[in-house]
Amino acid sequence: YSDFYKKKYNNINTKINNYDDFLKLPILKKDELLETNMYDRLFVPVWEIDEIASTSWTSNNSIPTFIPHIREIYETSNDIMLDEDYLDSIWAKSLLILHKLSEHMLTYSKIKKNKFFTTPGHINNMKLSSIIAKETRTTWVITSPTFLLSLVEELKKIDFDLSSIKYLQLSTEPCSKQKLEYIKSILPNAVVDFKYWSAESWLRWYKCKNLMHNHESNIYHISKLNFLEIYEPDENWYGRILHTSLLNDACPLIRYDTWDFWKIIDYECECWEKRIIELWWKTNFDKLKFHWVILYSHMINKALYLVKLYVKPVFQIHICEKNVWWQVLPELV
User: Fold this and answer.
1) Which of 113, 207, 232, 283 is deepest in the core (most CB within 10 A)?
2) Are 259 and 250 in contact (CB under 8 A)?
3) 3-state class (DSSP) for residue 144
4) Among candidates 216, 209, 213, 221, which has minimal Cα distance to 275?
5) pTM score, two decimals?
6) Nearest to residue 240, comparing CAs of 263, 265, 213?
């Protein structure tokens, strides 16, 4: 159905017999996806497409990338996403999904209806979502850290018992150590689980119960749906992640540059996994160069953590230029 990769590889039949052959394949850039009509990237008939996902508009040109998927991707992801026996054991019975894809996640979730009660919230109406949470006696939430904090402010206004929240599944954005500790302080009985989703690959990495309880929010296991490479690692072995799809999909990705900087670490986990992956920063997004200085977002997070008793775990940075005598100097506000 598609000759997208044939054109990219100059119509050369590339036989992959080993890993060295695989490394000879050229890297796939996001710009290449943007320049190609979505239907010209399809590897399945149009009628097999079950969902079209969109990236978050955070690339340099602020244009979203549209990625089609087939149903198998969601079903396999949900097998990793939800441990129903564990949720049952901690009495997490009533779910509120507060996500930009709330209806989609509700549709594809393989939750047993006789065990859990599931309700979608509304990210643009936190007051309504808080009322829904109280009326349905919500005990676990699927959302992002930012949406969660907004929801909590509304829950406080209606005297919702925050100690009744047993489980949080947070995704779509990184969560600083300061913000995580703040979430645990206001939701003391909640087990916090992080999943890392992307429009391109759906579930890219996840946390087992051991990582949930014993590691920071930037430590994950690699999803079995994908093969990941560390490209051009630095002296500390952090490098850009190249993503390759391992399942058939409507638009499989081969050596796709994610713009994320990660490090893969050998780690004997209690769940029998042999590796973990650690997030560092996102290329062209989590760093800023100005006046011969490079500022990384994790530096700001670390600085705020030192004064966590005096500031909230949410911030905005504005960089201005200020005239000081005869020179122009940067100023952080």
Assistant:
1) 207
2) no
3) coil
4) 221
5) 0.72
6) 263
